[in-house]
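debug: dumping io for the single-chain case to check the tokenizer round-trip. Nothing else runs in this session.
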Amino acid sequence: MVISDSFKGSLSSEEICEIAKQSFGKIFPACQLTAIPVADGGEGTVACFHEVCGGREVRVTVQGPYGQDMETAYLQLDGGRAVIEMASCAGLPLVSGCKDPCAASTYGVGQQIRHAVQQGNRQILLGLGGSCTNDGGCGCAAALGVRFLDGEGRSFIPVGGTLERIEHIDVSGAEELLRGVHITAMCDIDNPMHGPAGAACIFGPQKGADPAMVEFLDHQLKALDETIRRELHQSVADVPGSGAAGAFGAGILAFLGGTLCPGIEAVLDLVDFDARLKDCDLVITGEGRFDSQSIRGKVISGVSRRAKAQNVPVMVVAGSVLEEMESVSSDPDSGITAVFSINRQAMDYSESKKFSRQNYQYTLENILRLLQCTERKNAAACPDRGRAV
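debug: decoded output
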């Protein structure tokens, strides 16, 4: 089975599945291969669910990160269920060259949710990941009817740089709109809302924040946390995942009454992964960069944990492997048998990403040839032995 996250910026999960089908067909033509495109809440979530579950895309015009009109889409499934990907209107690729987490908003995400609810959906699966925002989900909440008031009683839509201006929060409008609706947010991290391991400190730099801005954004999130405690009598800052997507996770809990779950767990349940493992001899998974975050609620961690429970070996094929992860395959508790990087030459990512497709295929086919060699040796020694792959 091949079930890999995308290599962000170079290879989609669907492309990896396509390469796997070609490579297995060439080297192990008799092998029964299951290839599942997967995402854990970030970019590509809607496309992966569409590939696996069918459904239809619903196109809608919403506001982008800085208020500009843009067209995006969510996935409509049977049974009053909709899948929405926040990155489609509040994602990093949309602000390339003009990153500003102090000003970016999740308002468009709320517009998508509102549209889906008005179409009769009662189960909303929201992918949190790949965000350019740090507004605690306030923009989304405002689009769904939450009113944020400043010290003079004026309503406004908070962004990452204005959270401390919030004096009062009125959630009655959202409660009315979302009555009978449940929002489940998929997130691939367990970081808290603020602090050294929080949204701003860990993820602010990749959104364009320098050290001074990181400190400022963290201060803003602390102020929002205090306001939520005072106004809504809730404590969400330390809930695992509350720091996801610029603390959007905290907003899901505090403003919308939703729940957080590891994105990969929702996906694996949906594709009936545990049942598929019963007849599986090997799982190949991976992502663009294999680091300490990879084993904290992301695709690799979810896949390896479940495969380990059924004694199915797991190989990780990643774009790059950080030094801190080089010993993971020797840890019997990891569920990971072997780790491979597709990088064949020492070059900067800006250059190597251009060759990701051929590098991935080269690496995968070498792994398969090694397995083929081992299988032939076993078959010669034990003629009645069945296929190992």
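debug: round-trip ok. The chain has a mean pLDDT of 90.
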